[in-house]
Design a protein that fits this description.
There is one protein chain. The protein contains 8 helices and 9 strands. The chain is α/β, with parallel strands linked by helices and 199 residues long. The radius of gyration is 18 Å and the shape is globular.
Amino acid sequence: MKKGRLIVISGPSGVGKGTVVKALMERDPNVRLSVSATTREMRPGEVHGVQYYFLSREEFERGLAENRFLEHAVYVDNLYGTPEEPVDQMLAEGHDVVLEIEVQGGLQIMERRPDATFIFIAAPSFEVLEARLRGRGDTSEEKIRERLERARVEYRVAPRYQYIIVNDRLSDAVDDVQAVLRAEAVRADNQLHVLKEES
């Protein structure tokens, strides 16, 4: 069985990366979304192993000490991270696995798994990104400013990703992600097995 590919998708708040990932999974049944672990409290309606793996801080820190996370970060006093074992299990089963994560985590995975495919989702312009954040109507001005400042930092990191896809029309953005995955599948280093003669 051919091993799956690890796909890292990042982008600023408001760019629609979650919508792109959801649409990609609807189109391609072989794509799986990695489930992150967190130390934050479980909210009503959430299920362990579905939205997140909910861990105690002690469990999470033990996992860090044992190098069991592909990446991790601290956000609002809680720990978040991607457990390596379930990702590797899905890859071994031949599934392509998407990690929808912040650029901070993406940079960690570049060090740990440089063979992964790194895709950054951008808005058509910074003005469009700001308009999308404001258009939600449920975010305070302070939060909008914070997210825009974080987006500026993320945009400076974006050139380290292999691909930058603009999410202007959703269907076009998903087409572009699928084109990247098709191209990655036929890269020479992924196709060397077809050049071997039978012994």
